[in-house]
Write a structure and sequence with these properties.
Chain B: Keywords: Coiled coil, Transferase. Chain B: Residues 88-218 form the GST C-terminal domain. Chain B: It comes from Tetracentron sinense (Spur-leaf). Chain B: Residues 4-83 form the GST N-terminal domain. The complex is a heterodimer of chains A (230) and B (226). Chain A has two domains: 3-78, Glutaredoxin, CATH 3.40.30; 90-219, Up-down Bundle (Glutathione S-transferase Yfyf (Class Pi), Chain A, domain 2). Chain A contains ten helices and four strands; from the N terminus they run E-H-E-H-E-E-H-H-H-H-H-H-H-H. Chain A has helices spanning 15-26, 43-48, 68-78, 90-116, 120-145, 158-164, 167-177, 188-199, 201-204, 210-224, and strands spanning 6-10, 32-35, 57-60, 63-66. In chain A, strands 2-1-3-4 form a four-stranded mixed β-sheet, with helices on one face. By secondary structure, chain B is α+β, with helices and mostly antiparallel strands. Chain B has two domains: 6-78, 3-Layer(aba) Sandwich (Glutaredoxin); 89-221, Glutathione S-transferase Yfyf (Class Pi), Chain A, domain 2, CATH 1.20.1050. Chain B has a four-stranded mixed β-sheet with strand order 2-1-3-4, with helices on one face. In chain B, helix 1 (15-26) links the parallel strand 1 (6-10) and strand 2 (32-35). In chain B, helix 4 packs antiparallel against helix 5 and helix 5 (118-140) packs across helix 8. Chain B is globular, with a radius of gyration of 17 Å. The mean pLDDT of chain B is 93. Classes of the chains: A alpha+beta (230), B alpha+beta (226). The A-B interface holds A 51, 60, 63, 65-67, 70-71, 73-74, 77-78, 90-91, 93-94, 97-98, 101-102, 136 and B 51, 63, 65-67, 69-71, 73-74, 77-78, 89-90, 92-93, 96-97, 100-101, 134.
């Protein structure tokens, strides 16, 4: 496959953008990373993702693929000679897809809810919801890892990428709010997994530093305190 | 693997359940229908889908799979005859993209319009129409179905509109579909309904109207339920 014709449209702080980058790294596929500026959308982005106008977009041999988890599956299917991302058994695949959908549809809105919370009470409620979700994910980790180090077993897989891409923001949120979201008592498996995941060579270079994310979050908050967002 | 018993925990009025039924029928899989009362969920449902406690749930070879799109992919990967998703990775990505779009942008707006009123409902209707315009645009370039000559993943995911859309419009007092404005979509619906496995199993319109009236009343009376 021609890997000189692979581009990722994205932005460094986005957990969704991190997903295809990690997947491409695991497959040892070189790609060009084209960054969108905050608050502006390039012509290329508007052309490649006219429906949602969102990042990430993978452009491969001039064809655009959108939606981070769909992109990760595409990467797995196209570069099939590299390490596999999804499990080989259909049931294990279904479990991985189920939990990835849970993370995006149910859990992530709670995480985002912490930043959006207007008062102390609302923020604390949001924090509780995030923690409850992480306890569920701890259960998923126990089930999927089958005693090994990752959701994918011996190596990083689809679900590791889906959940792990949020670790930067989890840590930044912990720092900004003075709370512990992942803790040894309630989510011991995830605590160990988080260290392992972030230290992995495919992840290290694309996972933003907590400090930088916290700074970025401040800029975002200031920017959106102006006219109410859509 | 494929010869073990298959059970589907479902509910006659659920469009999500129908998707899975269509997928099973496409593959010629024999299964047992277990009807759930969603106002009084069975221990079986609570056991096999503890996270969401929703239908459909597929039970196969002692395992349970939840979430309709996840179930359909599981069915496609377990039983290889009559493929539902395309083989080419780019086409598969497209199919998954449009299935997600249908669910999140179109179906969700219709569902919200059913259980809301006033300004909130107007917002949802506007969203649904915009989504339908995009679907119309996409259908213009297709032959008969999203899947080509035969129905595929996106057709199965969108198929609920053929029985449910009109019912929701009537019950919620809204208008989304217009055959003049959406001719390709209209054609697609006519073709879809003519497909043998679909024709046999669409739920009764009158029953759906009654059922959805109840849902709307119930939801409007308890605003905290989403």
């Amino acid at each position: 496959m021609d890997s000189s014709d692979v581009k990722v449209l994205g932005a460094w702080p986005s957990p969704f953008v991190m997903r295809p980058r990690i997947a491409l790294n695991i497959k040892s596929v070189t790609y060009e990373f084209l960054q969108e500026g905050l608050g502006s959308k390039s012509e290329l982005l508007l052309q490649s993702n006219p429906v949602h106008k969102k990042i990430p977009v993978l452009i491969h041999a001039q064809k655009p693929i959108c939606e981070s988890l769909i992109i990760v599956q595409y990467i797995d299917e196209v570069w099939s000679s590299g390490p596999t991302l999804l499990p080989s058994d259909p049931y294990d695949r279904a479990v991985a897809r189920f939990w990835a959908a849970y993370v995006d549809d149910k859990w992530f809105p709670c995480l985002r809810g912490i930043a959006k919370a207007q008062g102390k009470e609302t923020r604390e409620e949001a924090i509780e919801q995030v923690k409850e979700g992480l306890v569920l994910l701890e259960g998923a980790f126990e089930k999927c890892s089958k005693g090994k180090g990752y959701f994918g077993g011996e190596k990083i897989g689809y679900l590791d990428i889906a959940v792990g891409s949020f670790l930067g923001w989890i840590r930044a949120t912990e720092k900004m709010n003075g709370v512990k979201l992942l803790d040894e008592a309630k989510t011991p498996g995830l605590v160990g997994w988080a260290e392992r995941f972030c230290a992995n060579s495919a992840v290290k270079e694309v996972m933003p530093e907590t400090e930088k994310l916290a700074e970025f979050a401040k800029i975002l908050q200031a920017k959106f305190k102006a006219p109410p967002p859509n | 693997m494929g010869s073990e018993e298959v059970k589907l925990l479902g509910a006659w009025a659920s469009p999500f359940v129908h998707r899975v039924e269509w997928a099973l029928k496409l593959k010629g899989i024999v299964y047992e229908d277990v009807e759930e009362n969603l106002f009084n969920k069975s221990p079986l449902l609570l056991k096999y889908n503890p996270i969401h406690t929703k239908v459909p749930v597929l039970l196969h070879a002692g395992k349970s799979i939840s979430e309709s799109l996840v179930i359909i992919e599981y069915i496609d990967e377990t039983w290889k005859q009559n493929p539902i998703l395309p083989e080419d990775p780019f086409e598969r990505a497209n199919a998954r993209f449009w299935a997600k779009f249908v669910d999140e942008e179109f179906m969700e707006a219709i569902r919200q319009a059913l259980i809301s009123e006033g300004e909130q409902q107007e917002k949802e209707v506007k969203q649904a129409i915009e989504a339908l315009e995009i679907i119309e645009g996409e259908l213009k370039s297709k032959q008969k179905f999203f899947g080509g000559e035969k129905i595929g993943f996106v057709d199965i995911v969108l198929g609920w509109v053929t029985a449910w859309l009109e019912v929701v419009e009537e019950v919620a007092g809204i208008k989304v579909f217009d055959s003049q404005k959406f001719p390709s979509f209209n054609n697609w619906m006519e073709n879809f309904v003519e497909t043998p496995i679909i024709k046999d199993k669409l739920p009764s319109r009158d029953k759906l109207v009654l059922y959805f009236h109840k849902i709307r009343e119930f939801s409007l009376a308890s605003p905290t339920i989403k």
